[in-house]
Design goal:
The chain is mainly α. It is built from ten helices and no strands. The radius of gyration is 29 Å and the shape is globular.
Length: 205
């Protein structure tokens, strides 16, 4: 009897037809919950679905962020003197601790409109937080931050950064004054406590 020749595709198709997908799914769920308390089949499936959902949420969030970055870059190319776009991109850099890039965009926005408080703040914030800052940088940032606080007396971020400039210049008494001012506005403001602790550490207390 001559064995009929079978192609690879036919063999794969037959194997798929013969698979017990319910059994295979249980195996996958069991693998994901290995070492955990004994789950029922329903609990394993729910656990598996939650895991998959989180993976896709994270992937979509990453894709959305990348897409937003591309769109923002494209908009900046089309509108290089747009202060709102410069500030948005600059703040993204600042939040990611790319202070030199934030400084570049902040100073550019400030040159375009020196009356823009947000531009002034970003410029000062990046200036005083970048690596390799000089005493001149800190003193310049301090002058800008004083103006920001004068215009926005409840701007906690500006107040604490102003306090930080005094700390860097060794003027701890003035630093504590601004830290305490921030805590009077919001007694739970975390950054104020961090700077306060840093001051005490620098003073050896």
């Amino acid at each position: 009897m001559v064995e009929e020749k079978r192609y690879k595709g036919e063999i794969v198709a037959e194997r798929r037809r013969n698979l017990d997908f319910s059994l295979e799914f249980d195996r996958v769920c069991a693998g994901l919950t290995a070492g955990l308390p004994k789950y029922s089949r329903k609990e394993r499936i729910n656990y598996y679905n939650k895991k998959i959902s989180k993976i896709w949420e994270g992937k979509n969030e990453k894709n959305n962020t990348s897409s937003q970055q591309v769109n923002l870059d494209s908009l900046l190319l089309a509108h290089p003197d747009s202060i709102p776009l410069l500030l948005q991109k600059g703040n993204i850099f600042a939040d990611s601790f790319y202070m030199d890039k934030a400084l570049n965009l902040g100073s550019r926005a400030f040159r375009l409109d020196s009356n823009n408080i947000d531009a002034r703040f970003l410029y000062a914030y990046a200036l005083t937080n970048r690596a390799g800052r000089t005493v001149s940088d800190i003193e310049l940032a301090q002058r800008h931050l004083k103006l920001v606080v004068a215009k926005q007396p409840k701007n906690l971020k500006a107040i604490v950064n102003l306090a930080a400039t005094y700390s860097e210049l060794g003027e701890f008494e003035r630093s504590f004054q601004y830290i305490n001012e921030a805590l009077r506005i919001d007694k739970k403001y975390r950054d104020a406590y961090i700077l306060k602790g840093s001051n005490y550490l620098a003073l050896g207390n």
